[in-house]
Amino acid sequence: MLIVKIVMTVAVIGTLIGNTVDFIVNDVELLRYFAISFATAISAAIGAFGWVTLVFAIMERTAKEKILREIQEDWSLADLPEKEVPQKPFSRIGVIIGIIFTVLFLVLVNQYSQLLGFYYTLDGSIQEMIPVLNQEVFRSYLPYINAMLVLQLLFSASKLVFRKWTYPVATANLILNVLSFILLWFILQDTATLNPELVTKIAEATDGQRVLNTAFNSIKAVFLFIFLLDSFEGFHDAYKNRKKPV
Question: pLDDT digit string (tens) for 58-91?
Fold first, then answer.
């Protein structure tokens, strides 16, 4: 219920923000803005509810019976060991923030990717925008991006269930990081995902291909470092948490 509330709220708010930006940038009629906002907000709420239900259905079907029984059974402080080695649990706030940003990114790439661009003003009054993405090519990658984001939501939900790093959780995190980096690599290798107009303007101002290669390689290096650090932290904390009670 906590995740349902978070995901539905963020999905609706993200959709309304995107519609508002679209209203300002593209000068949409006010009546059409309200109609589209209402329809997309309802659609986002229903979709969010459906995805969260699917995620927890998968968890319920795949989790071991012993784990589900331990989660559902009542317990008291008397059930705890007399003395336990300090362990490092997941930050509940951090997990929730991760879920919020994942949902916002999911809404962005599916509904408002066309608003990603460079905005500038001509003659101090006319606002222009050059889109960053080639929508036709980018949308061919969208099913894979959505799959990775849903897996990320599933993993975040599992953190709230397992509460701490374990070797299975760290392994799942490693697999998710590897798959994410592979997908990112393929997207960045395909320069056709960029808007041709933007590529042309970059080429006019600089050595276009060299600049793009440098930028893409830098992004790959940054994300590789982040994924490696995140994976190492997972296994490191799992090792610390596996120590038996004293």
Answer: 767 766 565 556 555 555 656 555 555 555 677 7
- Give the closest residue to 212 by CA, choosing from 131, 128, 129, 132: 132
> How far, in Å, CA of 58 to CA of 128, rounded?
45
The structure tokens listed for 184 are 């990112």
Neighbours of 194 (CB within 10 A): 18
Where does the pLDDT of residue 243 fall: very low under 50, low under 70, confident under 90, or very high at 90 and above?
A: low
C-alpha distances (whole Å) from 14 to each of 82, 91, 94, 152, 212 are: 47, 24, 19, 18, 30
Q: Rounded distance, CA 30 to CA 17, Å?
A: 15
φ, ψ at 135 (rounded to 5°): -60, -40
3-state secondary structure labels for all residues of 161-200: HHCECCHHHHHHHHHHHHHHHHHHHHHHHCHHHECHHHHH
Task: Identify the helix (H) or strand (E) that includes residue 58.
Answer: helix 30-62
How far, in Å, CA of 104 to CA of 98, rounded? Answer: 10
The DSSP symbol for 245 reads P
**Residues in contact with 50: Cβ distance below 8 Å, sequence separation at least 6, in sequence order:** none
Q: Give pairs for 66-74: CB < 8 Å, separation 24+.
A: 67/161, 71/161
Count of alpha carbons within 13 Å of 91, Cβ hemisphere only?
5
The pLDDT assigned to 17 comes to 77
Measured between its terminal Cα atoms, the distance across the chain in Å is 36
